[in-house]
Amino acid sequence: MNIKLKQSISLEDLKILKDSVFKFQEVLLFKPDQYKGKLQNTSDFNYEEYYFTVDKDIRLHGVLFKTTTKCKGVIFYLHGNKAIINNLDISLKFYLEQGYDLFTWDYRGYGKSDSEIKNESEFYADAQKVFSEFYQQSSYEHFIMLGYSLGTGLAIKLAADNSELIDLLILKAPYYSIVEVVRQRFFRFAPKQFIKYPLESYKYINQVKAPIVIFHGKKDTTIYYESSVKLKKLLKEGDQLYLIDDLVHSPFDQDEYFRQKLVSILSENLNQHDND
């Protein structure tokens, strides 16, 4: 006699599975490193430290690095998932040499920032609080938003929500959404409701009024360059996408074509800003 056993997944089992997937995502997406005390590897730079209270007993740490030449403006930088201020994924010297100050900050649990990242809305809210306070405390006439990798999602959202304050948005290796990254790299049929941090950049990029420039390496295996190709379809007239043949995900700033093109774009944007 054949006996068929009916198998089903209870709501409780589904919740346990979803919680486990959520926890795995945080380990995968956020790779914070912490430190205390003085900044290291900064002896060649002039800088000023900032602290932002974003919640009760939670402060986030930021640093403004200052150019030694005549200052043209400031670059507000959102770093990748493995970087901290003490070990940045950006060539500080290169950007400062262009005549811009550069401000960056560490997300919750990164560097000298308190607590840990717990959900997407909090992640976005922290970015807005830091941006708003820094903007109010500063007096720069030229304000550039720059995001790399994980930080591109925050950069796009900030530029969309503060469009009148941003003169240029630069994205290095952006994603269409984290949902798409998960489906490309790990599980093709991952349900959207199982993604705790969807970070859907495509929903906000067409709300950015400032000029947008995207750079992406065609050999990037972390965030495939097709993400930028899809984002390009949502850009307004005049926005630009540059695909760089031999560029991988990291290091990014060492690529000579990227450097030359960025210097030209910064100069053009500054001239346009001065003529407006």
Gist of the model:
With 276 residues, this protein is of the alpha/beta class.
Task: Give a description of the structure.
- The structure is a single chain.
- The protein has an eight-stranded mixed sheet, with helices on both faces.
- It starts with 10 loop residues before the first helix and ends with a helix.
- The mean pLDDT is 89.
- The protein is of the alpha/beta class.
- Helices cover 33% and strands 19% of the residues.
- β6, α5 and β7 form a beta-alpha-beta unit.
- The protein has a single domain (15-275), classed as Rossmann fold (3-Layer(aba) Sandwich), CATH 3.40.50.
- The protein is built from seven helices and eight strands.
- The chain has helices at residues 11-29, 92-97, 120-137, 150-161, 178-185, 226-232, 256-275; strands at 46-55, 58-66, 73-78, 100-105, 143-148, 168-172, 212-217, 240-244.
Blueprint of the fold:
Layout: H1 11-29, E1 46-55, E2 58-66, E3 73-78, H2 92-97, E4 100-105, H3 120-137, E5 143-148, H4 150-161, E6 168-172, H5 178-185, E7 212-217, H6 226-232, E8 240-244, H7 256-275
Parallel strand pairs: 3-4, 3-5, 5-6, 6-7, 7-8
Antiparallel strand pairs: 1-2, 2-4
